[in-house]
Each structure stands twice: as C-alpha cells, then as structure tokens.
Design brief:
One of its GO terms (biological process) is translation. With about 55 residues, this protein is mostly beta strands. The chain is about 5% helix and about 45% strand. It contains one helix and four strands; from the N terminus they run H-E-E-E-E. Strands 2-1-4-3 form a four-stranded antiparallel beta sheet, with no helix packed on it. The chain is elongated, with a radius of gyration of 13 Å. The termini are far apart.
C-alpha cells in the first residue's frame, strides 16, 4: 500500500480577504514544494480572492 501522507499532505487554505474562511485540500509536495496559493470563492465577501496555504 502506498504512503499518500508523505507525498500528498492535507493543507489548509486561508482567505487573504481577512474573513477567516478556510478551505481544506491536498497538495503534491513533489510538484508544489512552496506554499500553495489558489484563487477561490470566499462566500463572506461574495467574490473570488487568493487563498494561501497556512501551516
């Protein structure tokens, strides 16, 4: 059985709009060794904003 916890850890993405809204996702450490930044929808401000990985 493959170890998915080493290659694909669970990360929290926190909104940069300051609302405190978070998403939870997995990322591939080999392809994305740096902190992940995704543009997703924040329902508290009702628009798309950058979500940054927090550790």
């Amino acid at each position: 059985m493959a170890k998915t916890t080493d290659v694909r850890p669970v990360v929290k993405l926190k909104s940069t709009a300051g609302t405190g809204y978070t998403y939870v996702t997995r990322k591939n450490r080999r392809n994305d060794p740096d902190r992940l930044v995704l543009r997703k929808f924040d329902p508290r401000v009702r628009r798309h904003v950058d979500f940054r990985e927090e550790r």
